[in-house]
């Protein structure tokens, strides 16, 4: 009787082992609900769109489940913060999928992009209105700015009362720029009955909320060196010498500049890639954290002292005044061409209203 070769015995043993211990893929055995929950957490906490997309391209199952409406509805500002240089049809489609999933932040971001960058005014305004209905404060404020300026239409399309109403709703939700805008409207009697004391109260409240936001941010927990009680020393600091800006000069504090919203960053980058202007004769808001362009010539007001900078709103003017323009503003003997500007902003935070000959002081 012949003895089998050792290789044959080994092969037979392997076949028996595979028969009793079948190979299994534990990933495939995980339920979809668990993976959707994990991907939803990732969508809400990713630091950039690439971090979320890189997870989706790991495997076909992640790619499929990552497009689930529950996952897309949880996508945060950072996850949706697409760069203008990476804008493409697929990026547009991704934002649209998030909108269809009920993501309010995506409604606002895509609405701003369509209204200001793609010049699809109707669709953009509708998306922002959809976000505003869900009490999205930035969308409410942006619609207020559109109403104040008559953006996308003519000068006669301005609706100051509607702008004030939208601004008041955003301010009630704690939007800092809306608080500033509403404070200036009340001080100036712009679209609402003038109430200087109530306007001042809103401006102080905006500063207080800004300070609270900085104090509660994780990045500022390690250092409080920007807090000071010497406003005169702050104003002597050269603009651009550090990342800190005297936004709270009313309180004698020096705080970091607020982080721009992804929609504002997208617009600023979009027009920078196209020569820094939204079109012939059109201007961008001079506040670096805004990014809004004019939709018609002379839509924005400009500084009545230097005649160089211009702003989409009183809030942007007040912020830019404290951030940098206070150190740069200087009277010019010859102004740039104005050609029927809608209004002017004075060098101390006031605005020269249409068809009026005197400045309305509204320092923030």
Automatic annotation (TrEMBL):
Q: Origin, by domain of life?
A: Eukaryota
One matching Pfam family, short form?
TPR_27
Q: Using the UniProt annotation, give all residue ranges assigned to the region (Disordered).
A: 334-364
Record-annotated MYND-type domain positions: 287-329
Q: Does the keyword Metal-binding apply?
A: yes
Coiled-coil residue spans? none
GO terms, molecular function: zinc ion binding
**How is this protein named in the record?**
F-box protein At1g67340-like
Q: Which organism is it from?
A: Cucumis melo
Task: Give the gene symbol.
Answer: LOC103487769
């Amino acid at each position: 009787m012949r003895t089998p070769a050792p290789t044959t015995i080994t092969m037979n043993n392997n076949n028996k082992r595979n028969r009793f211990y079948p190979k299994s893929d534990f990933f495939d055995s995980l339920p979809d609900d668990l993976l959707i929950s994990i991907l939803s957490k990732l969508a809400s906490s990713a630091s950039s769109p690439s971090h979320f997309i890189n997870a989706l391209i790991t495997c076909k199952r992640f790619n499929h489940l990552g497009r689930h409406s529950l996952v897309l509805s949880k996508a945060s500002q950072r996850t949706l913060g697409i760069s203008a240089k990476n804008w493409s049809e697929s990026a547009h489609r991704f934002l649209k999928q998030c909108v269809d999933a009920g993501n309010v932040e995506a409604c606002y971001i895509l609405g701003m992009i369509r209204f200001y960058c793609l010049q699809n005014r109707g669709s953009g305004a509708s998306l922002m209105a959809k976000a505003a209905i869900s009490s999205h404060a930035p969308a409410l404020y942006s619609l207020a700015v559109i109403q104040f300026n008559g953006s996308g239409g003519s000068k006669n399309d301005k609706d100051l009362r509607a702008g004030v109403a939208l601004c008041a709703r955003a301010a009630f939700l704690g939007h800092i720029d809306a608080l500033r805008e509403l404070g200036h409207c009340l001080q100036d009697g712009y679209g609402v009955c003038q109430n200087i004391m109530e306007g001042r109260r809103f401006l102080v409240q905006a500063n207080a909320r800004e300070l609270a936001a900085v104090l509660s941010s994780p990045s500022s927990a390690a250092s409080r060196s920007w807090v000071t009680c010497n406003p005169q020393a702050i104003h002597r600091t050269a603009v651009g010498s550090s990342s800190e800006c005297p936004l709270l000069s009313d309180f004698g504090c020096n705080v970091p500049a607020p982080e721009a919203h992804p929609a504002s960053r997208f617009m600023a980058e979009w027009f920078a890639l196209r020569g820094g202007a939204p079109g012939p004769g059109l201007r961008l808001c001079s506040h670096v954290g805004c990014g809004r362009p004019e939709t018609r010539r002379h839509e924005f007001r400009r500084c009545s002292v230097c005649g160089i900078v211009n702003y989409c709103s009183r809030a942007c003017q007040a912020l830019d005044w404290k951030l940098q323009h206070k150190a740069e503003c200087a009277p010019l003997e010859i102004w740039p061409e104005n050609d029927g500007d809608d209004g002017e902003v004075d060098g101390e935070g006031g605005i020269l209203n249409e068809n009026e000959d005197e400045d309305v002081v509204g320092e923030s």
